[in-house]
Design goal:
With about 375 residues, the chain is α+β, with helices and mostly antiparallel strands. The chain has a domain of about 160 residues: endopeptidase domain like (from Nostoc punctiforme) (endopeptidase fold (from Nostoc punctiforme)). Strands 3-8-4-5-6-7 form a 6-stranded antiparallel beta sheet. A hairpin with a 2-residue loop joins strand 1 and strand 2. Helix 1 packs parallel to helix 5, helix 2 runs antiparallel to helix 4 and helix 2 packs antiparallel against helix 5. The radius of gyration is 34 Å and the shape is elongated. The N terminus is likely disordered.
């Protein structure tokens, strides 16, 4: 039996996975009519389960990459500010040095006359002492000014070195995350071919199994009911960790206009770490669309879940077009890893996964089949 070690969810693999689950019955559904069908069912179900697991792993890794990139951008901003401070410190030091140089040059050029003035201008010995002390104080003050400015400049330089070191470390982390994601993506082509082979084999078997479709429809309904019950149990376990829901009477009107913006990006390819119309990941898409209507929201799906007004997972009746909907591993609100935008009629728009494009899917179908919905946010 062929079961690949690693899978990634792609358009071909999704289509095949849906077809396999919808078209084949596993041993739990009944005794297969032929040994070949039984073997292929087990292989297909194992492949689909592994596809789901690897897709989740990639989504989590992409969110880690986004968080590192966000921190790196902040460090770069701090470096730019520090460099401006350093430029000002260098100008202050140059001014202080010019002041000291001008003072020394003046004393050198007029030393005879100046010192004679000190002696001849004094009326008493005490006056002479005061004049000489004043001249010494002026020289010390100029020198101390230069030393103080040099010390300040050195402190700014040290801050810049520390920030540069932090940037190097963050770049290394970013490169590592990108490398790990790239290694996973490298498996996509092989998995697509493998899933394509499964689809072709299953299609050949389906031709002889049309009569079983009625039984499979009943089995799908049973699986959906089980998934809903499982989602309910998982929701109860994670309820203590979920956000407190906002009072329905306090909910703002939201931003329904953002839906029109988002629909304009249908078909844009999914790109992990992507946050521009050339390619989006899930949270990059929602952040970009909201920025187009003048609303700033955080970068990652988890941060977006914790922002705005929270709508409880059980209050689907309160969701309006433009609200963001969130999904967490096993329905756990502490493990949010995906976000989409509700567009109405039980549907949501999202950037699903590597190999897919921005599209609209059924929110209610996902809730019934996967049970990982954890609630919504309104901004």
């Amino acid at each position: 039996m062929r079961v690949k070690a690693a899978y990634l969810r792609t358009p071909a693999s999704i289509a095949c996975g849906i077809l396999l689950i919808a078209s084949l019955e596993s041993p739990a559904f009944g005794v297969p009519s032929t040994p070949e069908i039984g073997v292929k069912q087990a292989e297909a179900l194992a492949a689909q389960a592994e596809l789901d697991r690897m897709n989740h792993e990639l989504e989590v890794l992409i969110e880690e990459y986004n968080a590192i990139t966000e921190a790196l951008d902040l460090t770069r901003d701090q470096i730019r500010l520090t460099q401006r401070d350093l430029e000002r410190a260098e100008m202050d030091l140059a001014d202080a040095r010019r002041t000291l140089s001008d003072r020394v040059t003046s004393i050198y050029k007029h030393r005879g006359f100046g010192m004679l003035d000190v002696f001849l201008g004094a009326r008493t010995f005490e006056d002479l002492v005061v004049r000489m002390d004043l001249a010494a104080r002026i020289s010390r003050s100029d020198a101390e000014l230069v030393a103080a400015v040099k010390t300040a400049k050195a402190a700014v330089e040290e801050s810049e070195r520390a920030l540069q070191q932090r940037q190097a470390e963050q770049l290394a982390l970013q490169a590592e995350a990108a490398s790990r994601a790239s290694r996973i993506e490298a498996d996509v082509a092989n998995q697509q071919r493998f899933v394509g082979e499964l689809e072709a084999e299953v299609q050949a078997l389906i031709a002889a199994e049309q009569e079983r479709q009625r039984q499979l429809a009943a089995e799908r309904a049973r699986l959906a009911a089980e998934a809903a019950a499982r989602a309910s149990r998982e929701g109860a376990r994670s309820a203590a960790n979920a956000r407190a829901a906002s009072d329905p009477s306090s909910l703002r009107a939201g931003h329904p206009a953002v839906v029109e913006v988002a629909l304009g990006f249908l078909g844009v390819p999914y790109v992990w770490g992507g946050s521009t119309p050339s390619g989006f990941d899930c949270s990059g898409l929602t952040q970009y669309c909201y920025s187009e209507v003048g609303v700033s929201i955080p970068r990652t799906s988890k941060s977006q879940y914790n922002a705005g007004q929270h709508i409880d997972r059980d209050r689907l009746d309160l969701i309006k077009p433009g609200d963001l909907v969130f999904f967490g591993t096993d329905g756990d609100a502490n493990r949010v890893h995906h976000v989409g935008m509700y567009v109405g009629d039980g549907n949501y728009l999202h950037a699903p996964y590597t190999g897919a494009v921005v599209r609209v899917d059924s929110l209610t179908a996902r809730i019934s089949s996967r049970g990982d919905y954890v609630g919504a946010s309104r901004f």
